[in-house]
Structures are given as C-alpha cells and as structure tokens.
Amino acid sequence: MRHKKAGKQLSRNSSHRRALLRNMVTSLFEHERIETTDAKAKTIRPLAERMITLAKRGDLHARRQAIAFLQDKDVAHRLFDEIKGRYLDRQGGYLRIVKKGQRKGDGAPVSIVQLLDTEEGKKTKKKGKKSGKVKAKASKPKKAKAVKSAEREKKKADEKTPGGDLGKGIEPTMAEGKNPTESQEPEA
C-alpha cells in the first residue's frame, strides 16, 4: 500500500523522474508550449507555476532557486525578464492543459501544456448573473433597431430609383432575356 506517498511515479526512479520534470519545465519556458502525456502534464503544472511565482518575487534568492531548478540559465533569465511581466496581475493559474487525444503508437492520452497569454489572463469581472442578463436583453433591441433602420433606408433608396429594384444585381444579358451560358456569337 502506498499510504503517505504523494506524487506520481511516472514509471521512473526518483533521479530519472526529477531530471525528466526539470527538462520538461525548462522546455515549457523555452518554447511556451509543449506536448506530453496527461500524467506528465499534470505533474509539471505545480513545478512550472512555482517557477513563475519565483520570477514574480524577483529577488536574488528567487533567481538562484530558479536557476538551480531549470536546466538552462538563458531560459531562467528569460523567465525573470520577459515571462514574469505577463502574470504580475494574476494569482496563480499561469498554465493551460488542453487534452489533445490519443497517441498513435501506444494510445497514451496526450495533452498540450501552454503558458497563458496576457489578453487571456485579463478577464472582466461580472457583478452578478442578473446584471449580465439585463445588459444582454438591453443590447438586443438596439441591434434590431439598427437592422430595421438599415432596411428603411434601403426601401427609400429603392423608391427613389425609377423601376425599383428591377435589374439590380442582374447581368445585362439576363435583363434583356438572353441566357448567359450560351456562347456570345453574333446572330445571323
């Protein structure tokens, strides 16, 4: 029985598992998106979010802790200089895990792990369900009024032109009663 044994083993011993997870987190920050199995994706999420939290802290000790975990110094510097700016307003939830399907070779469930973008991070707060519904109902009549006014203007324009909409959008050959599919040979 595995009582009090937290974390997934991923069918590896502890040193192999640690190296795998460090490499995956480094690759995630380098490419901002990786494709892996569901179990590995769920395992790297807290580690990657911890690195972003260290970057948000931004002091020397946090930088040294991140460099000790990540495999590449350049990636750690990029994390502290570029990536942390996106998440200053966010309190966690920096990653998205999207299920992709089954891997062709062995049928393992595959996911895409990606960092959230800045515009995706900013969500508008709703005050309540009722206020959102009232706004939605109020906006519908405005759209209907705009459509009706456009139709009125179109009718006025049709009335001003002689013959109404006769011949609008029709080729001249069709208006004259000729078939446009027939060849345009002179009649004898």
What does it look like?
The protein is mostly helical and 188 residues long. It folds into 2 domains: 108 residues, 50s Ribosomal Protein L17, Chain: A, CATH 3.90.1030; 47 residues. 52% of the residues lie in helices and 11% in strands. The chain is built from 7 helices and 3 strands. Strands 1-3-2 form a 3-stranded antiparallel beta sheet. Helix 1 packs across helix 2. The N and C termini lie far apart (99 Å). The mean pLDDT is 82.
Task: Label the overall shape.
Answer: elongated
C-alpha end-to-end distance: 99 Å
How many individual β-strands?
A: 3
> Largest sheet, order of strands side by side?
1-3-2
Number of domains: 2
What's the topology here?
Elements (H helix, E strand, L loop, with lengths): L13 H18 L1 E5 H20 L2 H10 L3 H9 L13 E8 L6 E7 L2 H4 L7 H32 L11 H4 L13
Antiparallel strand pairs: 1-3, 2-3
Helix pairs in contact: 1-2, 2-3
What's the short story on this structure?
With 188 residues, the protein is mainly alpha-helical. Helix content is 52%, strand content 11%.
Tag the structure with descriptive keywords.
188 residues, mainly alpha, 50s Ribosomal Protein L17, Chain: A, 2 domains, three-stranded antiparallel sheet, 7 helices
